[in-house]
Amino acid sequence: MSAAFHPEAAARALLAVHRGAPRLPGLTPPPPDTAAAYAVQRAVIRALGGGAWKMALLAGRDRHAGALPGQGTVRTGACLPLPADACIEVETALVLGADLPAGAGPAAAAAAIAEVRLAFELVAPRLADRKAAQPLELMADGFGSAGIVLGDVLPGWRDGMRGPLGIELWLDGRRVAAPEAVASLAEAVDFLAWLAGHAAAQDLPLCRGDVVITGARIGPLPLDGARIARARAGGAEVSARFVGA
């Protein structure tokens, strides 16, 4: 880790934005490597409290994870403050019904899932220009996540979710035409087994009640000032309302 980069200082800057300060132009200097970015994540979660995780691809290639504050996970129908350039993703969220220690294999990971819910992930980094931010800066900032909205349990999720869920999305009552990515339950379980080891190594072991999102099925899509979002898949729904941050 570069001597010029101090994870605690970067975390303090990000925490100030979490608590209402203006967004940052960037982290100066930026994290030099993934170990440094994870150190920032740990420091932020020590201050805010954990309880949620997201799968992410660093620079669109390598699988990593974002540790997210549990206080950022809310139930459907919540009203949330968001900046004007925020984006939304429709996801599926795993909710753990048991602790999951390091070394857990796929069978144990699958058994630890209590339910799978339709969800929104909101994307609004603590950095002012998401497109200009370096990948490691976004990684340090929990990959830009601004919260998770948990909707209804997906009917039949135990059948494997092998095909499209038939997700429909509306923003301010207007149907949004967007392609849906397909991801099976087996793929989510594979990530969850990997995450058990990663989370333990970060001294943030997976616990009963933790929420894990495993990648966008729709999005990210700009909200473009929309104040109400609603999605449906089968018999499950999720909704949220937004106000300016």
TrEMBL record:
<dbReference type="InterPro" id="IPR050772">
    <property type="entry name" value="Hydratase-Decarb/MhpD_sf"/>
</dbReference>
<dbReference type="Pfam" id="PF01557">
    <property type="entry name" value="FAA_hydrolase"/>
</dbReference>
<dbReference type="GO" id="GO:0005737">
    <property type="term" value="C:cytoplasm"/>
</dbReference>
<keyword id="KW-0456">Lyase</keyword>
<dbReference type="InterPro" id="IPR036663">
    <property type="entry name" value="Fumarylacetoacetase_C_sf"/>
</dbReference>
<feature type="domain" description="Fumarylacetoacetase-like C-terminal">
    <location>
        <begin position="75"/>
        <end position="219"/>
    </location>
</feature>
<dbReference type="GO" id="GO:0008684">
    <property type="term" value="F:2-oxopent-4-enoate hydratase activity"/>
</dbReference>
<dbReference type="InterPro" id="IPR011234">
    <property type="entry name" value="Fumarylacetoacetase-like_C"/>
</dbReference>
<protein>
    <submittedName>
        <fullName>2-keto-4-pentenoate hydratase</fullName>
    </submittedName>
</protein>
